[in-house]
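Recall the central idea of this unit: under ordinary conditions, the amino acid sequence of a chain determines the structure it adopts. In this exercise we apply that idea directly, starting from the sequence alone.
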Amino acid sequence: MAKRPKIIIKMIDKMGKGTCHYGHKIGDAFDFDTDRGRMCPMMVHTAFPYIDILRYGGSIPGGDNSDKCKFCCPDADVINIFEIERI
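Accordingly, the structure predicted from this sequence is:
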């Protein structure tokens, strides 16, 4: 069985006026497999479909890079922007 690729999630930008309730800041990076306890559960819940697609060989429709995609935090007051990268 092939080894699953590493998945890295980085906070790359912010659009909302609020602050992250979980304390995430631009530049934070997380390994999906080892840092789950450090990541906001709402962020992980939103990221999971993208992670699942990338981890198992797919690509995100409309994306310009088959190994990366972006998504936003579901908190409308915060709107953190994250990037998922398949390594």
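The chain has one domain: 7-86.
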